[in-house]
Amino acid sequence: MANKVNTTFLFWRLYSGYVGKIHAKKYVLTKHFRGEPKKSDFEIVQEELPELADGEILTEAEFLSVDPYMRAYMIGYKLPTQMIGGQVAKITASRNNKYPVGAYVVGHMGWRTHTICNPNKPVEGRFLPLYLLPDIKSYPVSLGLGILGMPGNTAYFGMKELCQPQAGETIVITGAAGAVGSHVGQIGKILGCRVIGFAGSDAKCEYLEKELQFDHAFNYKSVDIRAALKESAPNRIDCYFDNVGGELSSTIMTYMNKNGRVAVCGSISSYNDSVLPKATILQPAIVFNELKVTGFLVSRWIDRWDEGINANLAWLQEGSVEQTIGGSIWFNNHIWRSG
Which of 161, 169, 168, 104 is nearest to 131 (CA)? Predict the structure, then answer.
């Protein structure tokens, strides 16, 4: 009789969504960043989660994103508030038959250990969808925060919809060794473009040229930018994917061809500056070369999210792109080490 009761109880726990008491830990931002982010800007807070309702799932974080945009976005939040960010998380309990226990999801759940979500009800303030990570077989699930997540889709849609490069054209990428920039360059090579990247160290540039097959990569800290462009882009630049802003971007945009296209993804060069830097005025280059300059948020293509994920997965499976991850961290081994 005892065995029957225990078996029945186990079945009920697995299929009803019952999980008992779960205490989640989360990082709460208590002070707006000044200069480089510091440990003292955060507090670790614990909270007890309720039982699951119909349609809900309980997830446990395995990887968190550490992306430049997070710094800029937090300026607009009233403090104290949970730190934003993406997650790859494992479903540990479910009352939603489309999201089984053991599957992995990617979502904008922030820096926290456990989260209760209803995939059918988007949460206000989360500007990216919650979705099941596709079957990626032998690849690490952390790619859900790389080429099979927001960075991959940022590169995919920014290139396809805004830069629209044609075979034989020249594209320049700043922040080229980052999660977005490195994938932009690989897409450029797939499309038959000459790809030039700027990054912040010689080691990064060597990686871009030798591992990702960029045609040229330059350390912007140690080269003459104009000379590097003349050397690597004799026919000037057709597309520019801008992740950094600042004087580097101004210099690149003055070296573009007529009707060039610029996708402005970010301005990381100034995110930690307390006073915004001055840069050469851009309007003359934009006007006289009739450049098309478009700033964008990847959430504009949220209704086509699966298109980008599936395209990037297909390139990965056929060996056309490397499985770069970028700014993700292994949650259990790092983020709570001091907690």
Answer: 104
Let me know the angle formed at the C-alpha of 267 by 297 and 26, rounded to the nearest 5 degrees: 70
Q: Percentage of residues in the chain with pLDDT exceeding 90?
A: 74
State pTM to two decimals.
Answer: 0.87
Structure confidence at residue 48 as a pLDDT band (50, 70, 90): very high
Whole-angstrom distance, CA of residue 324 vs CA of residue 147: 7
- Contact partners, residue 229, CB within 8 Å, separation at least 6: 172, 196, 237, 251, 252, 255
CA distance linking residue 110 with residue 67, whole number of Å:
12
The two structure tokens encoding residue 28:
């709460």
* Burial of 92 (C-beta count, 10 Å sphere; 0-12/13-18/19+): middle
Joined together, the tokens standing for residue 322 give 């490397």
